[in-house]
Amino acid sequence: MINRRIFYKVEKKYGLWYFSGNIVELFLFSMLPQFETYLQFIRAISPLSPESIDAIVPYLSLKTFARKDYVVRQGNISNEMHFIISGCVREYFEDANANEISTWFGFENSIAVSTYSFFSQKPSLTNIQALEDTETIVLKHEDLQQLFDRFHDIERQGRLLVEQYMVQIEEIKIILQTLTAKQRYDYLLQHKPEFIKRIPLKYLASFLGIKLETLSRVRGQK
Q1: E-strand stretches of the chain
Q2: Residue 11 burial (CB < 10 Å; 0-12/13-18/19+)?
Q3: Quick one: pLDDT at residue 181?
Q4: pLDDT value at residue 205
Q5: How far is CA 70 from CA 43, 64, 82, 104, 202, in A?
Q6: Are 89 and 106 in contact (CB under 8 A)?
Q7: Which of 116, 94, 91, 125 is nearest to 105 (CA)?
Q8: Closest by Cα among 151, 139, 94, 147 to 112
Q9: What string of pLDDT tens digits covers the 222 residues of the chain?
Q10: Which of 184, 200, 173 is nearest to 90 (CA)?
């Protein structure tokens, strides 16, 4: 395991950290762009003190998933929050008839997490699966809880992130329950074009709550 105590700051222009004294230094330097992307994301939610940034970085790690790999398995307890650097994932569950019901898609610069499992530490109600080769920055549950306890600004940022997520969920719920199939598709086309471009039609149809043939017909309408 990497010893976190050998972290120190590089020159201020980088704003990031690396290990010193062995080959791990070269490894972490290769990850600098990924970490910078993550730090830009969290700074955009709310400001963090330099001390909080110093505290977060040693807990971050990098993971890669091949297409069709599982980030989270339904029935397992999820201990990781993933920030997507590149790639695409879908969240889904299996109903009583073993049909896969897609509930969410995640792309670059978004968080992939089984919210129920991660925060309750109970078995996940959903799967999260990579639809493309995917790279993520990972923060573990126990590490995040320690950071919440130590730093008020990190705890506040966590609350704001959950609020953003809940607003998005409410928006999608209303859209799926009140709009026609054509209106649902048009909404994605206008507001979430990456869904149309990158999600296989069978998963998109499941997400919209319509049959595949209905989606195909809707796509053909002017």
Answers
A1: 7-9, 17-19, 61-65, 70-72, 80-86, 89-94, 100-106, 111-112, 127-130, 134-140
A2: exposed
A3: 92
A4: 95
A5: 28, 11, 12, 15, 18
A6: yes
A7: 91
A8: 139
A9: 333 433 433 333 334 444 443 334 444 444 577 888 888 898 899 999 989 988 998 899 899 999 999 999 999 999 999 999 999 999 999 888 888 999 999 999 999 999 999 999 999 999 999 999 999 999 999 999 999 999 999 999 999 998 988 898 888 888 888 899 999 999 999 999 999 999 999 999 999 999 999 999 999 886
A10: 200
Looking at this protein, which amino acid is placed at residue 204? L
Q: What angle do CA 177, 105, 219 make, to 5 degrees?
A: 60
Q: Which two tokens stand for residue 217?
A: 């017909």
Cβ count near 61 (within 10 Å):
14
Neighbours of 103 (CB within 10 A): 16
pLDDT value at position 199?
96
Backbone angles phi, psi at 136, to 5 degrees: -135, 155
Torsion sign, CA atoms 109, 114, 116, 119: negative
Ramachandran region, residue 29 (left: φ > 0; alpha: ψ -120 to 50; beta: rest) = alpha
- Identity of the residue numbered 188: L
Q: Report the distance separating Cα 156 and Cα 147, nearest Å.
A: 11
What does the pLDDT read at residue 222? 60
Select from 217, 103, 130, 115 the least CA-distant residue to 166.
Answer: 115
Question: In angstroms, rounded to a whole number, what is the distance separating the alpha carbons of residues 91 and 87?
Answer: 14
